[in-house]
Amino acid sequence: MRQTADHDTYLRTSHFASLDGLRFICIGAVLWHHSALASQMQMPLLKRGFTGVDFFFVISGFLITTLLLRERAAKGAISLRGFYWRRFLRIIPIYFLAVTVVAAYYILVKGEWQYLEILPFYYLFLSNYLTDHIPTLSITWSLSVEEQYYVVWPILLILTPRRWLASLLVALIVLNLAAVTGALGAMGIHAFDLGPLRFAMFPATFAPILLGSLAALILHSPRGFAVLARLFHPRWLPIVLLVLVLVLLQFLPDDLRGWPNLTLHVLMTAALISIVIREDNVLRPLLTLPPIARIGQVSYGIYIYHLIALHVVNMIGVGQGMIQMLVYSALSILMAEASFRTLEAYFQQLRHKRVGTVNRAGPAI
Question: Out of 115, 223, 234, 306, which residue is the most buried by the measure of CB atoms under 10 Å away?
Answer without folding.
Answer: 306
